[in-house]
Amino acid sequence: MIPSGRTIVTCLLGLSSATVAAYAGHHGANMWSPMPAAQPVTFNRDIAPLAFRYCAPCHRPGEAGPFPLLTYAHAKARARQIAAVTSKRFMPPWLPEAQELRFADELRLSDEQIALIQRWVEQGAVEGVPTDLPPAPQFVPGWQLGRPDEILEAEKPYTLPASGSDIYWNFIFRTPVDRTRWLKAIEIRPGDKPVVHHANILVDRNQSARRLEPEPRGGFPGMELKIESETFDPDSHFLFWKPGTVSRPEPEGMSLRLDKDTDLVLNMHLQPSGKPEKIQPSLGLYFTDKAATLFPLLLQLENDRRLDIPPGEKRFVVTDEFTLPVDVDLLGIYPHTHYLGKDLQALASLPDGSAKTLIHITQWDLNWQAVYRYANPVFLPKGTTISMRYVYDNSSDNPANPNDPPRRVVAGNRSSDEMAHLWLQVLPHAPPDTAFDLRMLLQEAMARHNLEKNPADFEAHYNLAAMLQTRGAQDEAIKHFELAVRLRPQDATANNGLGASLLAAGRIGEAMPYLYAALRAQPDNFDAHYNLANALASQDRFFEAIEHYRAAVRLHPEDANAEANLGSALAETGKLPEAKLHFQRALRIDPNHKLARENLERISRDPKDLQQ
Amino acid sequence: MHRLSLNSQPLLSFLLSLMAATILLVALPTLSAAQKTALHLDGTPADPFLAASGKPVVLIFVRTDCPISNRYAPLIQRISSEYGAKAALWLVYPSRTDSAEKIRQHELDYGYKLPALRDPQHALVTQAQVQVTPEAAVFDANHHLLYHGRIDDLYQDFGRARPAPTTHELNDAIQAALSGKMPPPSTPGVGCYIADLE
Asked: Which of A41, A379, A450, A500 could form an SS bridge with A460, CB 3.0 to 4.6 Å?
């Protein structure tokens, strides 16, 4: 019998995957070389290559830029604007400072390029000779990855009000698959782009976000989401869109798993434009036959507990650090704070004493937050310490400060609260013959690190216990489940988890009170019914066991184990025809269910056999 | 040209207006200052001061394609509804090329109900001493320029918007025009450069 119920609560915020990218133009910026001072700067020769590469991917019809920048006339009509926003590095939007570890698709103008634009405007924004103009960039309209295999459109549009503060809105997409499928990409089409600042997808395997919808299928507000996930099954992909993102397939070997009944929750940051806007995003799914062979993991550094920022404080520092228990390749990075974050930095200190800047943002702006992918995977050996150092400005000098006058700010999910998160997508280096999932080792180290920071953190105890349970370390799992239950005696999943681990350790009598407690807290908890039924059955209390198996089957009619065990318990009490029915059901759900098949054969061969 | 607060010095204001006109003359030698005029959407010459004798005049400069001035549409409309009875409020489009049709559609899309003028020759831009959209100019009942500049401090810089404004210059300037109190100091706006429209 298989204990059930490892619900890992993860706080996946902003986890998205994706491809912050810029248009990889045909006219590389590197082709630019300084002009002799006497030669006037012209659009056709000097500015067009920059505009085509850095501006046009968004500033073209149908994209996020509020006006096009595809021709001389377009650029001339905005010349001073272009000079001003590039000199302040507001455009193109690219937050990280230049650094040794390069990011893919950097949208960063060099100081020389910015100076060139200023000179062009100062000299009168001259057009130049037609023969200097490079060919216009070719863009694909609509879906960037071609026609999707399946397009999901939000069921109901959301109407963004004409004015007011920024809105965070979530759409739930019901996936259309009837079995587990693999995806090579999900492309996000956010709808009316000029009002969409970013969008990211959270994978909700338990459909838990549906409970947050005030009316079914209407979506729900909220900046940061908490999604429950069953079993140790980390979603290891960033699924992220912001203006300028070019969708890309996932790297070879890293397809995304999509199960039946999984919801995709699209979390969107919207900014009012002056008129009401209807937002109806869609997702394009691109299937592949290739199952994933490489399994990256999202590591999270954070220190929300340290966030208690006094009003007026200009340099409030929060740090965290984590030492890698295995060799990894770092693939992408996603720093995240709300509106008070100012200077965000992450470093890697290697065992050989060298250090690498992973990212450094000196002018954080939530409006342009993004996932950054490294141009090449960054090898970080076991023993490397990754550290984050975030500085917050809670003074009135910070124009983004949500409070006027400034107030004390602590951690929380609302946009007026703060966060101190750093996500890293890493691919563990596994020797070819490793049977053990190294992600588990990383995740466990992460959970232990969280407990050092937050010894009274329910979720940290719970998540560590769930992982220990999964790898069969029941004694230590029991210890952490007990601490979790002590922190939240009424929590059904924690009580069930403790019961399940005690059960797995053979301590059946001790398990039962926790399983009963789980059911008192949540009478429709499938896992608790199933585990309690197993406990009762193992004490030959079959009539009671049958009642709980029946409840479990009612709650999850598709669970082959529950059907098979119900059949077994019925057979033990002599109800053979009914037992047969449930063995058959279990086999319909899972034709390879060994226990159901064996028991069905025994009944068919010699019904009396089972009664003894 | 740098900006000055001219509220108590109408003579200086007059001189500065002249100066600006001279500069423009150099830039556009084919136009003479005397011919410059704003237009109603039907194409006839418009003088927003003529029809408003004894009343303050408020000019609010916007573009159809400026995301920052567009974001202000609900506030501009609210201010217009609030003061429409006591002051003459006009939306001014300084674009040289936007058609009357495009402007009517823009007003419709953004829910504007105040009357609109086209200012392709920048006659009003010069008179109001504005440089970006959105900026506003408030003239008192004697039609002296009392305030010109930002509507409020929602934007500190490009891309640096506050969650909500903490100052309300346009509203305060209109109050000042109606009550004779001191107007707020003229403060430049953040937005789309009108000079780019030349």
From this structure: A450
Cβ of B70 within 8 Å of Cβ of A368? The answer is no
Cα–Cα distance, A6 to A496 (Å, whole number): 9
Compute the distance between CA of residue A187 and CA of residue A247 in angstroms, rounded to an integer: 6
Cβ-based contacts under 8 A for chains A and B: 75
Question: Do both A168 and A215 map to the same domain?
Answer: yes
- In chain A, residues with a C-beta closer than 8 Å to the C-beta of B73 are 162-163, 274-275
Both tokens of A573, joined, read: 């009490």
The two tokens of residue B68 are 């920052």
- State the pTM of this model: 0.81
| Contact status, residue A234 vs residue A297, Cβ threshold 8 Å | yes
Q: Cα separation of A456 and A459, whole Å? A: 9
Name the band, by pLDDT with cuts 50, 70 and 90, for residue A197: confident
pLDDT at A74 over 70: yes
Does the pLDDT value for residue A397 go beyond 60? yes
Q: How far is A486 from chain B (nearest CA, A)?
A: 41
Site of tokens 């990754």: A386
Q: Would B5 be classed as within a structural domain?
A: no
Span A529-583, pLDDT tens digits: 999 999 999 999 999 999 999 999 999 999 999 999 999 999 999 999 999 999 9
Q: Which of B74, B162, B164 has the CB atom closest to A162's CB atom?
A: B74
The ipTM of this complex is 0.78
Rounded to a whole number of angstroms, the distance from the CA of A404 to the nearest CA of chain B is: 8
Same domain for A172 and A67, yes or no, is no
Does residue A397 sit in the same domain as residue A456?
A: no
As a whole number of Å, the end-to-end CA separation of chain A is 21
Q: Position A282: which residue type?
A: S
Find the CATH number of the domain harbouring B95.
3.40.30.10
**Tokens at residue A28, please?**
């590389």
Say whether residue A39 is in contact with chain B using an 8 A CB cutoff: no
Domain of residue B46 covers 10-197
Nearest CA in chain B to A197: B159
Domain region containing A497: 443-611
A373-403 burial, b at 16+ Cβ within 10 Å, e below that, comes to: bbeebbebeeebebbbbbbbbbbbebbbbbe
Is B44 inside a domain boundary? yes
B97 occurs within a structural domain: yes
pLDDT value at B136 more than 90: yes
Q: What is the DSSP letter of A340?
A: S
